[in-house]
Specification:
homodimer, 137 residues, alpha+beta, Arc Repressor Mutant, subunit A, three-stranded antiparallel beta sheet, 4 helices, 7 strands, 26% strand, globular, binds manganese (II) ion, binds zinc ion, DNA-binding
Chain lengths: 137, 137
DNA sequence: AAGGCTCTTTAGAATGATTTTAAACTAGAT
DNA sequence: ATCTAGTTTAAAATCATTCTAAAGAGCCTT
């Protein structure tokens, strides 16, 4: 199976029509590597790959992929959106100083006790962000 | 001690000159009640109190109070900033559906294990956000 | 109490990430 | 090949937040 067909199939399974733009972005983001991207960094990657996708479509695609569960949005600041290519359950270190986000191995955080969700609600996800700063000794 | 003097003193201790605007905002936000505000909701409160503070100053003051440790910023989305008048260590439920943020009692979440911070870094804060959604049975 | 220095506030303009628009395009079905 | 609904596009609009530079106000010194 050609790589293009592979990602097209992945998009179909996610309920997204495999357009040229979506397949190109899927090939960049859904190849199994775990990383964190912004609309801007993704646009750079696209350009480096010799392609072009309009700004609006980059945003739309990131939102659609997230909605479809192919990406995950990470909330650490509100300057711009961060997307995580790792949709498995895991947590993050965040260093505000240089806006650096680092994955924490899945078993690095153990939640021994969680509160019950408020009446009529259920827990959808638990996000742990450990804010760190460089030690100044 | 008059309430105004009380908040002025609090601001001085935080290293902030107690201007009319800062004292007014401190009286609204630093009275011991635990709640979550936005620049917008705070501006409404100020107006309701029959006062006026310019938009820029509302933003500046929220940022300065946060920097001074009198408020805490909560990160649950990147539509706009949320500020918490409770600076004690506690966590949150967040219901994206209607953008509702609810405090979790300090002992509601127990972290049995935390990873070591990366070399040369130390942990500054641990934020736990439990995303919830209404059960539809 | 007045003067002066510095910090602060102000209205308005600027910024910048993101969304919206309406027209041109295309994937997929017939 | 044709049709249609969904998609992409460049450009404009949105909107929370920051910046500007001029006017105002704490606060320290006389
Ligand atoms: Mn609270
Ligand atoms: Mn913005
Ligand atoms: Zn991650
Ligand atoms: Zn809170």
């Amino acid at each position: 199976m050609t790589p293009k067909a592979h990602f097209a199939e992945k998009l179909r399974l996610a309920g997204l029509r495999p357009t040229r733009q979506r397949v190109a972005i899927a090939a960049l983001l859904l190849d199994g590597r775990h990383r964190h991207v912004t609309a801007d960094s993704l646009t750079e990657e696209i350009t480096t790959a010799g392609l072009h996708v309009s700004g609006g479509t980059v945003y739309n695609t990131l939102n659609q992929f997230t909605e479809a569960g192919l990406l995950r949005r990470v909330m650490v600041h509100n300057d711009y959106s961060l997307f995580d290519t790792n949709t498995d359950h895991h947590h993050h270190f965040y260093e505000a100083e240089n806006d650096q986000l680092v994955d924490i191995p899945h078993d690095g955080v153990i939640l021994a006790q969680l509160p019950a969700a408020p009446d009529g609600h259920e827990i959808k996800a638990v996000d742990v962000v450990i804010h760190i700063q460089s030690k100044n000794p």
